Amino acid sequence: MDSNSQIESCDQVPDFLRDSSSRRSISSYQSKTSGGHSIREVNFSELGSKHVRHGSTGADSEAFSASYKEIKEDDARLIYINDPEKTNDNFEFAGNSIRTSKYSIMTFLPRNLYEQFHRVAYIYFLVIAILNQLPQLAVFGRGASIMPLAFVLLVTAIKDAYEDYRRHRSDKIENNRLAWVLVNEQFQQIRWKDIRVGEIIKVSSNETLPCDMVLLCTSDTTGIAYVQTTNLDGESNLKTRYAKQETQMKNPEKEKIDGLIKCEKPNRNIYGFQANMDVDGKRISLGPSNIIIRGCDLKNTDWAIGVAVYAGKETKAMLNNSGAPSKRSRLETRMNREIIFLSIFLVALCVIVSVFHGLWLRRHKDELDLMQFYRKKDYSEPEVENYNYYGWGMEIFFVFLMSIIVFQIMIPISLYISMELVRVGQAFFMIRDNRMYDEASKSRFQCRALNINEDLGQIKYVFSDKTGTLTENKMEFKCASIRGIDYSSGEDNTEDGQIGYSAQDGGQVLRPKMQVKVDSELLQLSKRKHTAEGMHVHDFFVALAACNTIVPLTVETSDPALKLIDYQGESPDEQALVYAAAAYGFVLIERTSGHIVIDIQGERQRFNVLGLHEFDSDRKRMSVILGCPDDTVKVFAKGADTSMFSVINRSLNLNVVSATEGHLHAYSSMGLRTLVIGMRELSSSEFEQWQSSYESASTALMGRAALLRRVASNIEHHLSLLGASGIEDKLQQGVPEAIESLRKAGIKVWVLTGDKQETAISIGYSSKLLTSKMTQIVINKKSKDSCRKSLEDALVLCKKITSGSGETHVVSQVALIIDGTSLVYVLDTELEGQLFELASKCSVVLCCRVAPLQKAGIVALIKNRTDDMTLAIGDGANDVSMIQMADVGIGLSGQEGRQAVMASDFAMGQFRFLVPLLLVHGHWNYQRMSYMILYNFYRNAVFVLVLFWYVLFTSFTLTTAITDWSSVMYSVLYTSVPTIIIGILDKDLSRTSLLKHPQLYGAGQRQESYNGKLFWLTMLDTVWQSVVAFFFPLLAYWGSNIDGSSLGDLWTLAVAIMVNIHLAMDVIRWYSITHAAIWGSIIATFICVMAIDVLPFLPGYWAFFNIANTELFWVCLLGITVGALVPRFVVKVFVQYCIPNDIQIAREAEKRGNSRESQDAQIEMNPIFDPPRQ
Amino acid sequence: MRGFRGEISVCIVHEFELQASFQFLVMAWEMKKDKIVLKIDCRDLVIVRTVNQAGHALSKQAACCLHKDRDSDPHCCLGEQPPSVDGGESGCTRYGALKEIDKGTLPIAKKIEVHGGEGVTAHRDLAVERQKSLREEGENRDLSIAASMYVYIYIYIYIYISVFPDLNWSFSELCSSDSRFTQQELPACKPILTPKWVISTFLLVSVIFIPIGVVSLFASRDVVEIVDRYETDCIPVDSRNNRVGFIQSSQDKTCNRTLRVPKHMRQPIYVYYQLDNFYQNHRRYVRSRSDQQLRSPGSNRDTSACSPEDTTPDGTPIVPCGLIAWSLFNDTYGFTRNNQQLIINKRDIAWSSDRDRKFGDNVFPSNFQNGTLQGGARLNTSIPLSEQEDLIVWMRTAALPTFRKLYGKIEVDLRAGETIDVTLQNNYNTYSFNGKKKLVLSTTTWLGGKNDFVGIAYLTVGGLCFFLAIVFTLIYLIKPRYFSLGCSFYSCTSYK
Fold first, then answer.
1. pTM exceeds cut of 0.80
2. Closest CB from B130, B140, B311 relative to A380
3. Polar residues composition bias: which ranges (chain B) (predicted)?
4. Residue A1093 is among the residues annotated as catalytic for this protein
């Protein structure tokens, strides 16, 4: 049967029902109706028409709209339903077996090594180890040199192997799970891996989908299947998917389904799907609501049958299975510059050694043969030959390579490992911080990226989403304007008496889950059905209850007589509206794809959903076409005020329109989100016209979305204004205080919102982002030239204000408010520079009506033009691009799903946690990490220099007095633990001080703790300390009978002690663990030196015990430690006393504050509460 | 997991739920009241980590699972992971998305985790590996246990960390949430450099350093030292143009020197020879020895490092081999005072540790100095190496190119003004590299020989610290700084 011809032949309009969601483009259609509310329906039933359409229209989430394309022939994949042989005949589609494992037994070794050596550090290790294997160069014992690398490689390999083994195992489990597949006209259990594209699969309730499949039929007569996509996007609410009516009626076990599905090539968009199905000679379009994808769970549906379209690695879930790209912290990037300096330094040392060695050889070249300590000639052989002498040039070259081996730890490889450890420790404390624990959602802080902890201490710009980030995104219906009359519940006295409306269902009471405050006047009105106002109110609330995509679910309670209705939906606004309607006695009881049942003042009424134009971001409204119980067909529309007023027939009642506009303005200045509701009754000719165009639009193969949009615009016009609603989006707890703190910390907070200007400004005021003292510059222009002009004007104004303030001593701040339309003309054009200039002069920037990509564009504007760190925080899918663009992305696990969290580097529960996160943890992380990096540079360089000085006394031959094992263990054991412990635990200031004085955050922004100057000062100190550590013993033992091993032990101990005491000097808080680490390391060094010296096969046997027996040894140790550290101590004391920075002052204040809370100090602190002037 | 080398035990105890997470390491975190205790069991390398709902450690129960017979213990099971975690776990590995959700939404279950297996094998393999490589190496066997332990722990922690994202949730379960540790509120001492502290520190340093400096200086001055440089004077005048030729010839190289005792020298008087410009720390030289060979007669073929003085041309090993032994110093000194011989005690000049354990008492020199080129002294082949004290002293290579080596001890006092005649055999060839040779007689003090450096350095540091103490006192008096009065954040900081 051809569907089109059927439509034409049928002059009675078939019941054509559409349901769709405003956001996820679920649309459906269903033919089942109960009872004969209309003649049309009866006719329809008589005809036995089964054609149903489940087209998908429009964009779903805006972020994904770009992926919508019409299917081209070349890009299509053809699936013959229930004919896997034919399906796979021409095109070999991937089987359903999956492979997440990376290696097989054969490929493990080469691939794993290849991957491991992607780390530069390992290559460095390897080169050094290889160099050391050459007999001419063997400086360390060969084993000793290759051990660290082999160990790390082996351990990592084992870890990888284990992980891969686990993946193999879980792949195997996954592949061997059983699914019911139609084979020879009956369902048989076969293994997942054997499923092929084109096969028909039956899934039962609570089972997981084995592959992506197009629904054919479900246990629900209307073809609905509920799925949970927790595995994919983390959203736990049920999503509805629909089987096409053409196939729904067929039972594949009894009736063979033949058909061809033409669908897109596999892609990773889990919210998009486009296909056509040719079944029974009809062409039906398929959309995202007709496909259920691998990894979903079927819920609340007994069974569902579908045909596999994508299998195995081509499923959307598998295509999405990739990790987030890792970011590198700013500190680490800066650090690399210093690493390069150190490399140059290393090469310089090596060059010095090799050149001097060459000179030495040259000077002694005539004597080399006979020197007892050189012996160039090997006289023991009958033929007297050169012994291990490769000529002047080669000797120099070898010495150069050898010196690289000896001085290798100049490049602090261990630093990378230490940094990772420290970051984990820091992450641990961030995760465990009770002050960042969200009671409401019971969620802790999450560190999703481990590399950028310290960036949190250097943030200069915060870009925040508004809805769900600053506000709770828990909508509450506040006021309504119906027909020009404002019903604001205000302070309602009668609310005690109102427990909300309940509907009766047999002996049971159905009550909405959430109670809404009601306006008593409006409540009275809503009950008077037969007055004119009553009718308006009636229509208004019917629109609220019907014009949405909310699904009511009844929930049992402990009281068997009482059931709660839970309105499940994806838009919190709609939920609020439906709850509000319910409170006024318009309880949405049931929604199927074909009809809705509303309990109106105790009377059940049934509305047929004839069509639905879902929300899209172009139209900014949605509409539903209802067949009402009184046999009229009405279109109800709701949407944003701008978009609605353009389609409202103003001539009908001008006063009402202007009054409503006034109310809307008032609502939005109260910070409410407004929606305008309109309605129109359709004549039958109009309806038919609409229906046929709707029909053809939704079957269109090309440009379906655009066509549907056009159909919608054709019907959405000349609406009569029903009224407007105001929904409150409550500010989250602590947001104004948090913004205040961030501002004081010198962080610029920009709010980027999709809301309209008035709402944005009002939220700006309530969140203390804007103050009445500020001068507002508003830019909302509709052309490039006007944008340019306003930008220029604004710049002039801005200069005037800032220059004027100098005389009056009044800091007048400027706030910039710019809307998305203007940004279209500004971003990516030459005006960008002006905007940046202007924005950087403004203390507050509010961007309203911005699209997700514009959010990212604004972040990029700052990121590309300054060196400042940016942070983006948001909770919704529309913030993803911004979160990924910013240096640090924070996702709030809020109401709008978890896409933001998935894209973020850190995730938390509430906006206000940003304050402890940045001001406390960020500050600590930055301070700790900066110090640790500098210290690690120092610690390794000092050791290398001590080795270097000795080399100068060995005729440049790279002998080390310090034993090989001590060299290896120096950065591993002797000195590493304290720096890690201190990197994790040390706190420069207490949490209270940091929160009390947000200005302290500036240290990170100004890079006070790690910069080039500090690096060079540290290196200067390093040279001094190494000189003392080396030359003190050298001179003290000069000309004595000291042996190399003993002196080596002295140097080892001196350096280890000196380095640890150096650290101890900088420790700010001494915990018991700190004590244990520092003194423990020194003791461990002693123990290790002793342990090495009790091995009789080493040359240094017993050396330590012999030298430790002399007083001079201990005198040297003491002298070195003090002598080396005195300059540092003096500088430290001098700086702290004479030119202290904020942190030192605050620390002193903290110390003093502990003993006496001085009032003077309080008074002194006051000035800082003024925001810093730039 | 069965069938893998080693074994893995996965335990499910009633009312606990297994937390499936990758745990390679062998470590136990135990939450005490205010700290985490990290446990590492080296013997069976099994980690036990248990956490109940309150976050309290339950290591005892877990430990039972490991040590008791699994079959007899009803609370333990062995084998595959329970199906209950199946879906979630496989989902975890499969879809990156799931991990996060589980972390966020899973109810906090009482859980117990027992891990082992691969970790064990890995560790043992490593140990074997290490042993093997060490044995091959021959020289660096047996690193101290403590040290290797540490390396293990370090790397284990590192690995643990590198799989951290997997462990995020379980990791965060380790400590009870409101402990002072996790909230970073452990009691701490936070010293501040107040003027009082600074000045006292400087004063303390000067108080300690100045006396030590003075004492050291006095000690150094107390040392009486006679130094006689003889390498030129002991060459006959006519041979001075061809000094290397002279020293290589078989002429009589006896040389008489006269020393004057400047001050009273109390016994024991140490007799040293001092060589200058002799790089006993030269890389080629230092390594040219075989400590194995010196210690045990079985290892006399262990001469791989000794080249070019490793074997005779026919391949028999030289004992002691290597350049160090070959170049043994062979000048000899005889002392007479008033024509009466001064006895030089050449016993106990080497470290007793070297004599006892480093040089074998059953190792005898063989093939020594038989080559065409003589490096230095010959050894009596009938005396074991442990009694060749000159060799032992020589083999303890000096740290610096200018060094002294103990030749012997004179165990009588020498009075001021006495003259001592030295009869020396000038055999050692330092002429080929212009090395100086000196004979040194020196007394000793607690500080060692004559060296003013320590005293001067200590006095300098002490004096400097005293000076600094005064400077800071002055700064403190002239420009006192009170935080609450003179300086607020704003006025003192870089906020401008």
1. no
2. B311
3. 291-314
4. no
